[in-house]
């Protein structure tokens, strides 16, 4: 699913990562994040903050020196609100997705992130949706915010694995994305990212530039489905993303 990296970056690549890419990424994150917080003082809808995030994403992706190929871009043009569901491989997933997905959407994320300085402030003031994962009942209750957003016409983005993959392989999917889509009766747009895990794997601080690929699948319709079909839709979602990744597990 992912290319093999050498044991150590060549000295020129390490210098590029340490002196150019990482500092540029850090400055862009701090600068655009601060701008988004300032913008939230008069725009509580989150729309301006989202546009700022899209600009940050484009700058961050450029700093990674990794060309991105998008396959199936036409599926991103589905009218009306949708649930975007994507495999989660790296911190760089977010810049790839924000720089590519058009229009407004909100992210479903773990409630714990709201406690972090700066990140939590941005999440709260830009209208993102917290999910309490302490218990199944709490998680189900907190998903109601995502359902309300979808019914109000706002698309929602979910990483169904719940967290980044530790080894680059597709993990088990949780049911949240399918539940949201079925309750709101909106399509699921499956997205598969390749190469991003190797660009910035977990527990590393160097960028490993490489070609990136984002494949967008055809919408998975939910019209007529009920909450009894959540497991089936979750399995279909994972199977679709696995097929796009070439994962035979």
What does the model show?
By secondary structure, this protein is α/β, with parallel strands linked by helices. The chain has a single domain (11-245), classed as Glycerol-3-phosphate (1)-acyltransferase (3-Layer(aba) Sandwich), CATH 3.40.1130. It is built from nine helices and seven strands; from the N terminus they run ααββαβαβααβαβαβα. The protein has helices at 11-39, 47-63, 93-100, 119-125, 136-142, 144-151, 176-184, 196-199, 230-245, and strands at 68-71, 83-86, 105-110, 129-131, 155-158, 188-194, 212-216. It has a seven-stranded mixed beta sheet, with helices on both faces. It is globular. The chain starts with 10 loop residues before the first helix and ends with a helix. The relative contact order is 0.18. The model has no long low-confidence stretch (mean pLDDT 87).
Detail the poorly predicted runs: none
Count the domains: 1
Strand content: 5-15%
CATH class bucket: Alpha Beta
What is the averaged pLDDT score?
87
CATH topology: Glycerol-3-phosphate (1)-acyltransferase
Q: What structural class do helix, strand and pairing data support?
A: alpha/beta
Number of helices: 9
Properties at a glance:
249 residues; alpha/beta; Glycerol-3-phosphate (1)-acyltransferase; seven-stranded mixed β-sheet; 9 helices; 42% helix
What is the structure about, briefly put?
By secondary structure, the chain is of the alpha/beta class. The chain contains nine helices and seven strands.
């Amino acid at each position: 699913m992912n290319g093999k990296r050498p044991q150590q970056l060549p000295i020129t690549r390490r210098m590029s990562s340490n002196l150019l890419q990482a500092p540029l990424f850090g400055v862009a994150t701090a600068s655009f994040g601060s701008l988004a917080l300032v913008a939230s003082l008069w725009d509580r809808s989150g729309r301006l903050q989202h546009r700022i995030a899209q600009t940050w994403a484009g700058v961050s992706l450029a700093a990674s020196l990794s060309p991105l190929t998008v396959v199936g871009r036409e599926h991103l043009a589905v009218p009306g609100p949708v649930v975007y569901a994507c495999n989660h491989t790296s911190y760089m997933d977010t810049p790839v997705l924000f720089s590519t997905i058009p229009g407004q959407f909100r992210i479903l994320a773990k409630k714990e992130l709201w406690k972090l300085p700066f990140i939590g402030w941005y999440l709260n003031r830009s209208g993102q949706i917290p999910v309490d994962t302490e218990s199944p009942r709490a998680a189900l209750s907190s998903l109601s915010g995502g359902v309300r957003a979808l019914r109000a016409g706002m698309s929602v983005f979910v990483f169904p694995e719940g967290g980044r993959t530790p080894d680059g392989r597709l993990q088990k999917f949780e049911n949240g994305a399918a539940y949201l889509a079925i309750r709101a009766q909106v399509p699921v747009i499956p997205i598969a990212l390749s190469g991003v895990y190797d660009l910035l794997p977990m527990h590393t601080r160097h960028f490993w530039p490489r070609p990136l690929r984002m494949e967008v699948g055809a919408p998975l319709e939910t019209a007529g489905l009920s909450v009894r079909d959540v497991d089936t839709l979750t399995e279909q979602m994972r199977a679709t993303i696995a097929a796009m990744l070439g994962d035979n597990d």
